[in-house]
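Hi R.,

Here are the chain sequences for the assembly we discussed:
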Amino acid sequence: MTPALPILMYHSVKDEAPEATRALSVRPSAFAQQLRHLRDHGFVGLTFGDLWSAVREGGALPERPVVLTFDDGYADLHEQALPLLLEHGFPATVFLTTGWMPDAGRHAAGRPLDRVLSWSQVRELAGNGIEVAAHSHSHPELDQLSDTALDDELRTSRGLIEDGIGRRVDSLAYPFGYNRARVRRCAEKAGYRRAAAVSNRAAGPGHDDFAIPRLTVRRSTTLRRFAQTAGCAGLGTAFAWTAPSPRATPWCAVRATP
Ligand SMILES: [Zn+2]
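And here is the predicted structure of the full complex:
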């Protein structure tokens, strides 16, 4: 039987976080405990893209795969999380909001909720096993945009990242997880090959490539709860990988405003 595939969604790893991101900001000590748990229980980390390739293209899948993803691109991924990821031997995927970056220059767009990665930090992440992927350009509710604006959001972030790191970008995560059918079609047209949503269920091979579910890790997530989540306990079948109601996510409730 194909295993359930836990894809964990983090936002930031730091002790003191602004109110807007606090609920989704995990303390570095808790993050270290979580990584130790994964390592000690035989989990093998993959990037989001590598997991997709293994499932879709028949690559080798470890017995206990796990994917760690980070949304928005906060600077603490480089400053706090990266040393811990390297120490425990886990890769990760960052979904970057390109218009929020401090050195976005003439491309600056939107209002970041906390300090965001610079391009030099992003390149350093890319050189340390982190997949750099897109999370739109200005972090809008994509399903509220016109087709033209939607296409622009998706293509601008992808193009800037490809120029910035010199690698092809195939992975996307929808801001707030909002992914109606029109958004998913547009993402495919913009050249992405897969996209991550938020639905708090384990992923599996019966999924929609443009609505791959992830599991939220919060500041309030205890190690016990984390262990259950990573083990996909009580998360339902691994084969129901289509996102349910795109708006009914805990993520939306936490951050109703961008
Ligand atoms: Zn986001």
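The chain has a mean pLDDT of 88. Residues 134 and 168 are 11 Å apart (CA to CA).

Let me know if anything looks off.

Best,
T.
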